[in-house]
Structures are given as structure tokens and as C-alpha cells.
Amino acid sequence: xxxxxxxxxxxDVASLWWVLAVSGLLSVAIGALLVFWPGRTLTxxxxxxxxxxxxxxxxxxxxxxxxxxxxxxxxxxxxAIIGVALGIVVIKNPDAVIKLVVVIAGLFWIVGGMIDVxxxxxxxxxxxxxxxxxxxxxxxxxxxxxxxWPAPTxxxxxxxxxxxxxAYGILExxxxxxxxxx
Length: 182
Known about the structure:
single chain
């Protein structure tokens, strides 16, 4: 089917066009922060993540000690201890966490890119087919670059990730409005 022919989109899917648009706007905003304040943005994100883990651990500890459900107390207690311990490690070692995230992000982009290419190639009725294939190829390339050269600097990664987030966000916004028009 060529892209000029009409296609049918599931009305339930089409009604969620705004999810892609909002996700795209958030991606662009986060990408801009990473591009313009890479070091500070990454460190703050890691600290917030560590603080969230500690907070979650404390809440689970309180639920384990004072909660009504005795069957899961031990699970809550184990989860609380792990959350607080990992949160402390994350806050004390933000650089190591950032390096690990770089590797995980590279792998994520490669796998996600392969999925987008596969989706685009196999679904010739999708209104965003070409965008998906293009996005998938870009994701694979960015993921490979990050895995091949992770050490030069985390700031370069942040800037590359920011640029990627901006491009991805713009394409998501486009896809959302394309889906809305379908």
C-alpha cells in the first residue's frame, strides 16, 4: 500500500494520539536540558533517583513494621533494606551509575531501534511507517556509537542523548498529529 492511499486506524489507538504528542514534548524538554546543562542534569537525575530509592525503602520499612498485612511484611522489609542500600550507593557513586546507564542506554537504543525498524518494515498500513524505520535506524546507530566509545566523556553522552531525545520527541509529536489526522 502506498502512503498516498487511505488507511484505517483503530479508533481506540487514534484517540490516544495525544499520548505521543505529550511524550514528544517531554522528550524535547529533557533533551534540551541534557544538551544545555549535561553534567549538572545527569548528576541531579542520579541524585534524585537515589533519593527516590531511599524514600521508597523508608516507606516500605514503615509499612512492614506498622502495616496490617502480616503475610507480606518480610517482603516489604527486604525491599526496604535493598532500596535504602541501593539508594545510598547511587548517591555516593553518581559517576559509576552514570557510566552504567550509558551502557544500558546504548543497548536499549539498539534493541528499540531494531523493534522500530521491524515494526515499520512489517506494518505497511501504519501512517508513521517511514518515520518508524528512520527512527529505528538512527536509534541503532546512536546505540552503537555509545557502546563503541563510552569512555571519552559522559558529557558527550549527555549531549548525544539530549540530541536523540529532541529528535525522538519531534518525531513522536509528528507521529501523534499524523495519527490524529488519520
